[in-house]
Structures are given as structure tokens and as C-alpha cells.
Automatic annotation (TrEMBL):
Protein name: Lysylphosphatidylglycerol synthase TM region
Highest rank taxon of the organism: Bacteria
CC terms in the record's Gene Ontology section: plasma membrane
Species lineage: Bacteria, Bacillati, Actinomycetota, Actinomycetes, Propionibacteriales
UniProtKB keywords: Cell membrane, Membrane, Transmembrane, Transmembrane helix
Entries under InterPro entries matching the protein: L-PG_synthase/AglD
């Protein structure tokens, strides 16, 4: 990583932090869309602290932690679970969508390489319909003798989550593009590869549940999408640097979240 200057590393690191905050905003928008209204600061601190659990095998621990915190807010566990399922779906669908739109422009043969991404969007978008996840959860709850949620995702909440998703990919793609700039000039082609590659890589990491934080999978996909532009060794360096910076961003935000929870007690406005 000798070509990555400290200044470039810091700029990319700041973008990694901002991108991670934007992902938290997706979760917050989905909670509001499900008519759960924890205090914004308290919800953010819980989200960032719980995200450290994704580095454990199974990648389900953030969901478990957030469901536990939901009880303190008076939010049913099923609602917290629905918000997390929708978060994973929104991040995956938007990541694939960004990849499908941008990666064909990243190389002369991009369209022939990535046309299949469009096929994955159909079931994902169907699953993100405001009625789908709550309806499926209601059916499962009835089967085990529990009360159904009795709530639906508001279209406004889903639209807000979509907007935050797009913003997060633009920022996280810029985070990668800054690193790419250490080895290659950055123009529209490089930006398309960085934003589209990051979206597709993150979606692949989420889909492979056993890998902690998509370890290996996310990095491999990012390397594959960047190699036509930077070469394989430089693409690997960028992927590893991105992984390190995003890990540091998670640790920093978790520390700030834990500090905030010590200073301010939990708040809730649930209805």
C-alpha cells in the first residue's frame, strides 16, 4: 500500500464513516415506515454498537441485538426483525441496481459481463413491496400462535430508505474511487466501476450469510470489478484498504454510540 498517501487514506476514511452513517439512516427510515419511532440519537447509537456483531460468524448478531434493544423502546421484536429484513433487502437490491446501471459502463465488455444482474432485481423488488415482509411475518406469527404485527411499511418510509440507499452507494463508491486514484487516473469510467463495484460487492457479501461482514466475498467481487481498470494487484490493494477503513469506521462509530448511550438514557416515541 506504499502508493496510498496518508492524505488519501484519511479522505477515503472520512467517506467510509459518512457512508456507514447513511446506511444507519436507511434503517431509521424503515423503522419510521413501520410506525416505530425511537429517539434518533438513541437509535443511531444502538445501530452502530450492534454492527460490531456482523464481524462474528453468521452475520445475524446485529439483528438479535437490535431486537433486544427494541424491547426497551416498546417496539415489538417482530417489528425490529421486519426492519432488519427490509434493511438487508434494500441494501442488496439497491447495490445490485447500482451495479447493473453502472458496471456496463466501466469496461468495453461490461454489458456482456453484467447483464444478468437485471434478472436478480425482479424478485428483490417484489420482496421490497411495502406489504410483502410484514404480510409474510404476520403469516408466520399466526402459524406459531402469536399475534400478528398489524402494521404495514409506509410507502413514504420505503421511498426515504431508497433515497438513503442511493446516497450511501454514491459516498461509498467515492470512498473506493479515492483509493483507486492512488494507482490510476479517475474519470467517469473509474467512478462507474467504483460505485457499481461497491454496490455489487456489498450485495454479494450480504447474500453469503456465513461470512462475517461478507469477508472474502465482498472483497473478491470488488477486486473482480476493479481489475479491468487498475490491474489485479492494485485492485486487491484497494479492496484490502477499503475493508480496513470500513472496519475502522464501524469501530469508531460503535465507540461513539456506546459513549452516547452512557451520557443519554434511552428514549422512545412508539405508537
Amino acid at each position: 500500500m506504499d502508493r496510498l498517501s496518508l492524505g488519501r487514506f484519511l479522505v477515503s476514511g472520512v467517506l467510509a464513516v459518512v457512508g456507514t452513517v447513511l446506511i444507519q439512516n436507511i434503517w431509521g427510515a424503515l423503522l419510521h415506515g413501520l410506525d416505530a419511532h425511537p429517539g434518533r440519537r438513541d437509535a443511531a447509537s444502538v445501530f452502530f454498537v450492534s454492527q460490531l456483531g456482523k464481524y462474528l460468524p453468521g452475520s445475524v448478531w446485529p439483528v438479535v441485538a437490535q431486537m433486544q434493544f427494541g424491547r426497551r423502546w416498546g417496539v415489538p421484536r417482530a417489528v425490529m426483525f421486519a426492519a432488519n429484513v427490509l434493511l438487508l433487502g434494500a441494501v442488496t437490491a439497491s447495490g445490485i441496481a447500482v451495479g447493473a446501471v453502472l458496471l456496463p459502463w466501466a469496461s468495453p465488455r461490461g454489458l456482456s459481463h453484467y447483464w444478468w444482474l437485471v434478472l436478480l432485481l425482479v424478485p428483490l423488488l417484489a420482496g421490497l413491496h411495502p406489504r410483502t415482509v410484514p404480510a409474510v411475518l404476520d403469516m408466520l406469527l399466526r402459524r406459531i400462535g402469536r399475534e400478528p404485527l398489524g402494521t404495514r411499511m409506509s410507502p413514504r418510509g420505503l421511498a426515504a430508505a431508497g433515497a438513503w440507499s442511493l446516497a450511501s452507494w454514491l459516498v461509498l463508491g467515492a470512498h473506493v474511487a479515492v483509493l483507486v486514484g492512488a494507482f490510476h487516473g479517475v474519470g467517469l469510467r473509474e467512478v462507474a466501476a467504483s460505485v457499481g463495484g461497491m454496490g455489487l460487492a456489498w450485495a454479494a457479501g450480504i447474500a453469503f450469510i456465513p461470512a462475517p461482514a461478507g469477508a472474502g466475498v465482498r472483497d473478491a467481487v470488488l477486486v473482480l470489478t476493479l481489475t479491468p481498470i487498475t490491474g489485479s494487484s492494485q485492485a486487491l490493494t484497494v479492496a484490502l484498504a477499503s475493508r480496513l477503513l470500513l472496519l475502522l469506521a464501524d469501530v469508531l462509530l460503535a465507540a461513539l454510540g456506546a459513549l452516547a448511550r452512557r451520557r443519554v438514557g434511552p428514549s422512545v416515541r412508539a405508537s
